[in-house]
Amino acid sequence: MNHKGLDKSRLPRHVAIIMDGNGRWARLKGKSRIEGHRKGRASVKAVVDVSRTLGIPYLSLYAFSSENWQRPREEVGALMGLLEHYLCDEQKRMMKNGIRLLAIGDRDRLPISVRRVLEQTIEMTRDNATITVTLALSYSGRHDIVKMVQGIARKVREGSCQPDDIDEALISAHTETSTIPDPDLLIRTSGEMRISNFFLWQIPYTELYMTPTLWPDFRRDQYIQALVDFQKRRRRFGKTDDQEP
Q1: 171 in a structural domain
Q2: From 2, 22, 49, 68, active-site residue
Q3: Is 22 a catalytic residue?
Q4: pTM score, two decimals?
Q5: What is residue 15's DSSP assignment?
Q6: Residue 199: beta bridge partners?
Q7: Domain count, the chain
Q8: Using one digit for the tens of pLDDT, what is the confidence trace for 162-218?
Q9: Is 143 helix (H, G, I), strand (E, B) or coil?
């Protein structure tokens, strides 16, 4: 596989992607919105395969936000059906390729059949170690923070934690992403310049890459281009250019 100038020694450890533009892709093609979502499945497969091949250990995909429940009922139902079929279809490949699946978000709002196959896939792949793919489903960054505050407040009330014990590490440990590192690179497709309530706590020093490419057209070459761009960044983490990064 040609990686077009990519330095494999300086890859991000964790890439997060806001997969946006399925509906616009469909409109431009004169197709239904659900056809755009269906086409986007191939892009998911592409970025997972490239990440796994390169050795990027963590990939997070913003698949469905808590705000997306406001979409037309028919579209939400079709999306849930696509998700269920995707998980069923991919289970064997996940096992073959060492892909571990995690999910974050309010799973209780998912249809029972989707929740069942999601939990089955998570359990089935729990010991896989090549790459961890996290699906953000019915996810809200603000809700994640609210739940974190509630969890810590309960510990303070119970006496197992004091206010002065609260630091960044404790907060991170109470978020839904406590078992994975913060993203090094956040990619958003479709040209929008916003975070859309995704990983609000987790991205203070994450490099942002916004591309006009619509998600169904975002494949291997576009992903490699984003990774090459990431490697051109100087990540100072508050230091000056003269100091060690």
Answers
A1: no
A2: 68
A3: no
A4: 0.94
A5: E
A6: none
A7: 1
A8: 999 999 999 999 999 999 999 999 999 999 999 999 999 999 999 999 999 999 999
A9: helix
